[in-house]
Amino acid sequence: MYICKAEPLSERRNKRVLQEARRLIAEWRARSRGSRPYVRVKCMGHKAKVFIDDFHYHIEAKATGDMIARYRLLPCVMELLRKTTDTPRPTPDGNLLLEGKTPHGRPFRVIIRPEKQGGCLQSFYPVRQ
What we know:
globular; single chain
């Protein structure tokens, strides 16, 4: 389990959390080359990529409270994908699961759908305790 150094988004108002999350997603996309935005990962082998093109559609379909809780974790998810060397666990439906903790000790999970060149970021969510 990777322990992140990046702080979750700490904005108080939901509107500001969404604005900050969308800004981070735009920056994340701008860093990658090609038509499909991606991030290089260490956890899935040599030169593996995780594509980040459509995960936010899944998150924005959730209820507002759940959506905001997920978007708050975005900086931690970004760090987890870039820096973890943990091997992802397979899930029963064929996806890959990575687990991490925020600097405050709150656990979260990241779901990656396997693809030929690596994977695609499917979802992420805080673990309810």
